[in-house]
Amino acid sequence: MKKKVAVFALTVMLVAGGNMWSKAEAHNNHKKSADKITWEHAGELEPQKGFEENIGTAGVLSGSYKNFVIVGGGANFPYETVLNGGEKKHYPDIYVLEKDKNELKLVDHTTLDHEIGYGSSITTDKGVYYIGGSSNQEFGNDILLLTVDKNKKLETKKIGDLPFAISDGIAVEKDGKLYIGLGKQNGKDSNKLFEYDLRTSKTKELAPIPGEGSRNQSTSQLLNGNLYVFSGGGTTAYTDGYKYNINKNSWTKVSSVKAADKEISLLGASSVKLNQDEMLVIGGFNKEIYDDAVKNLSTLTGEALAEFKTKYFNADPYEFKWNKEILIYNAKKDTWRSIGKVPFDAPCGAGLVLMDNHIYSINGEIKPGVRTNAIFSGTILNH
After folding, report:
1. I need a labelling partner for 56 at 20 to 30 A (CA). Which of 15, 82, 116, 148 fits?
2. Strand locations in 175-216 (E)
C-alpha cells in the first residue's frame, strides 16, 4: 500500500466535473440525435499500481483517440471515509482501452510522473488534451496531449503551460485554440475565460462569464461554433445557461437546464457532443440537497454539526437525488429534453466517452465521498 498523501477534503464539493469536450473525431459526430440508450455493465478498471483494489475515482481524465478510450487519474478516499476525516488521494494511473465491438479491452496501464484529477479533457482528432488538474501545484497549469502509438501504448506530450493553475473548470477547442476558464484559478474561484493558441503558445484573457463570480464544475460544449456553459456552483448550485460567441467575444443567456418543466442542476455532470447542434449530459447534484448541505456544513458547530455529518455522509446514494435524467440540449432550438434515465446510480465526475453509437460512463462519484469502479456501456438508438 502506498503511503498516505496529505491532501485533505472535508467538504460537500467532493466531485469533479471537467469532462468538457469540443472538436471530436468524425465518427463521434452523429448526424442523427439520440432517442434512447440501452445500457449494460461493461467491466471495471484494474487496481492502480501499488493498490490491491480499485474503489473508483472521480474527476478523471477521459477521452477517445481513434479506436481507443483513454481514462485515468482522478481522486478518491482509499484510507478512511470522509466522515472519519479520510485523506483524499489523486492518482497518476492512465488506462488505454481498445473498443472491440461494444466491449472495452485493456491494452495499456501506465502512470504519469505526477498525480492528476479535476482537470478538463478535450477529445480532438489529434488526441486527448488534458488541462490543469493536479494535486501537485507544479503541474496544475500543464497542457498535455495524450495519444496511442502503433503498439497500443500511451504517448503523453506536454505542449504548453498556462499562466495560472486551473481545476474544476471548462475547456473546449476550436480552430487550433483552446478556450479555458471558470473553476478555480490559482486556487481561487473565478469567472474568467481565456484563449490559448496552440500554435503560438500565447494566452489571451476574454470576456468573463456573466452571473456568479464562482462557477465550479460546470458542463460545457462547443456547438455550432459557439461555447455553451451550463450550471456549476459555488455556495449554491446553478441551473442557468450561457452562450459565448467566440467571434464577438460576448456572452448571452440561453435556456436554463430543464426536464418536465423542472430546473435541474448539472453541477458535477459529464457531457459529450452528439452532433453540431446537440450535447448529451448525465449526472449533476440535486440543487436543494446541495444548497442545504453547503449551508449546514459551513454554519453548524459542535454536536449539531457532528449529527448532520453523520446523517449526511451515511445516507444512501438515492437519498441525494442526483440527476438520473439523460438530457439533450439542442443549441439550434435552445431547448432541453430527456430521453430517459440511467439504470445505475447517477454519477458525478465520471468519464463520459462517445465512440460511434456507443457511449461509456466510467467511474465517478455516486454520493459525497464514495466512488464506483464500474464502467457502463450504452448503445444509442435512433428512430
Report:
1. 148
2. 177-181, 184-185, 188-189, 193-197, 203-205
